[in-house]
Specification:
There is one protein chain. By secondary structure, this protein is an all-alpha fold. It is 69% helix and 2% strand. It has a two-stranded antiparallel sheet with strand order 1-2. The N terminus and C terminus are likely disordered.
């Protein structure tokens, strides 16, 4: 692979075509993926109704605090790439690469997850979907027809993103509206057909049950940071972009709490624990109709598509920004001549999501678990750089300043870092959410590749507003072979 020697030409700029609702739909839709459909029953079984609600609220608070740091930094630096730009300015190129690589890895694992989740969900509607057996992966038989559902969807969603961010944003808006309608139906059904007695026991599993739900927070809430990734394509004031980050986190928290409460009100805890897809079965029970269960599954498919679309957009903008800075091969920075989208980055991620369904359902858990630690690492670094920039550049233009003009902002940044470090510790051996070997292998492979790229980025480049320019200048000064060596 080769590292770019020079900055891309001006015609690699992106188009500013997204409005308020487009940006909010991208952030909220990214967070409301497939997890709420298939995981809610497990949350209730692990922690009880109120235990699961408490874990969701805790997760929302953690992500909300982190979201505040993102809000200020996004408003101050509304450029494609989000974390990439924040860390370049506050910590320098190598730390910028680490943070960008971490969140890109998290995004890609979830994009691939959605490609596997789609046929898994479709099989609920079409029980005979699995035909033409191919091979077994971790004890699961993969069928050609099943895998092709996810693979072909990868082609369609990647194609939509290549055809323009406005088209992707419009598609996102329509699907999010459908998802909200499903949510309103769940709430209505809970009031008319649910029972508070079904919600018991309110707490179960003690602290282990609570932590078992809490550890999925990075996976459930990742996506609010898609708004910073698309900031260069949003045609609204910088201050407003930052506010949308926090609004998206609040909406997602409300959504997850609503899902837990409505599902638990529908059926006794024992029935929920035995359900295949508890949320769908709950919808059917609330309305006394199997058709309504299928409509809920359609909502799950909508969630898959919104998350998939948003995170594909976010990951491609990160890779584009890294290539623009010379951290990745210049190939990833190529923008489509007509549609002004990062076409090669989209094709690369689209190809990975095309392949994912051929590894079967076991890949679902592996992808979730392997991507979550990388996501938290990125959040830790953003929280730290938020504090650094508050100290080093107190007079930096901040259209949205969180915590006021005193030390309130610094306290928020420190709290965000501490909370995320605590969250990261839960994945380590001996902890409640210790990862199994397959996710660690995927995590390790991603970071081995990252290490190869990292140590070929020149050292000794100080952080600052012009860090990207100085990085590119240093690359020019290298010998031709060295400058193109990554």
């Amino acid at each position: 692979m080769r590292l770019s020697q020079t900055a891309p030409e001006p015609d690699t700029s992106l188009l500013k075509v997204l409005g308020n609702w487009d940006a909010l739909a991208l952030g909220f839709g990214a967070m409301i993926g497939f997890g709420w459909v298939v995981l809610t029953g497990g949350w209730i079984a692990s922690a009880g109704t109120m235990g699961a609600v408490l874990a969701m609220v805790t997760g929302g608070v953690i992500m909300g605090v982190v979201g505040l740091t993102y809000a200020e930094l996004t408003a101050a630096m509304p450029k494609a790439g989000g974390e990439h730009n924040f860390l370049l300015r506050g910590m320098g190129p190598r730390w910028s690469f680490i943070g960008s690589w971490a969140i890109t890895g998290g995004y890609i694992t979830i994009v691939a997850f959605e490609a596997v989740a789609l046929p898994r969900t479709a099989q609920y509607l079409f029980p005979n979907l699995s035909q033409i057996p191919l091979w077994e992966v971790a004890g699961y038989q993969v069928h050609l027809t099943w895998a092709l559902v996810g693979a072909l969807a990868a082609v369609v969603i990647t194609g939509i993103n290549i055809l323009g961010v406005k088209l992707a944003g419009t598609a996102q808006t329509f699907v999010v509206i459908f998802l909200l309608v499903i949510g309103l139906m769940l709430v209505f059904g809970s009031f008319t057909g649910g029972s508070a007695s079904n919600m018991e026991p309110f707490f179960t599993g003690g602290m282990n049950g609570y932590f078992a739900v809490l550890v999925v927070v990075p996976f459930l809430f990742v996506g609010f940071d898609v708004i910073p990734q698309s900031a260069e394509e949003v045609n609204i004031p910088a201050r407003q972009i930052g506010k949308l980050v926090v609004v998206a986190v609040i909406l997602a928290t409300i959504w997850y709490v609503m899902t837990v409460l409505t599902t638990s009100s529908a059926m006794p805890a024992g029935d929920i624990a035995q359900a295949d897809i508890a949320t769908a079965d709950a919808m059917g029970a609330l309305f006394g109709s199997d058709v309504m269960a299928k409509i809920l599954i359609a909502g799950g498919i909508a969630g898959i598509l919104t998350s998939w679309n948003s995170l594909l957009l976010g990951a491609s903008r990160l890779m584009y920004s890294m290539a623009r800075s010379g951290m990745l091969p210049a190939w990833f920075g190529r923008v489509h001549a007509k549609y002004r989208t990062p076409v090669n980055a989209l094709l690369f991620i689209g190809a990975l999501s095309f392949l994912a369904p051929f590894f079967g359902v076991s890949m679902l858990v592996w992808l979730v678990d392997s991507g979550a630690p990388s996501i938290v690492i990125a959040y830790i670094l953003v929280s730290i750089v938020f504090v650094i920039l508050r100290r080093r550049e107190p007079h930096m233009d901040r259209p949205l300043r969180v915590g006021g003009k005193g030390n309130g902002g610094t306290i928020i940044g420190v709290a965000a870092a501490v909370l995320c470090i605590a969250l990261l510790s839960l994945y380590l051996p001996g902890m409640p959410a210790a990862l199994t070997p397959p996710p660690w292998i995927l995590f390790g492979l991603w970071w081995v590749l990252g290490a190869v790229l990292l140590f070929r980025i020149p050292s000794g480049i100080a952080p600052g507003q012009d860090a990207e320019h100085r990085l590119l200048e240093r690359l020019k000064q290298r010998s031709p072979d060295a400058a193109r060596s990554i």
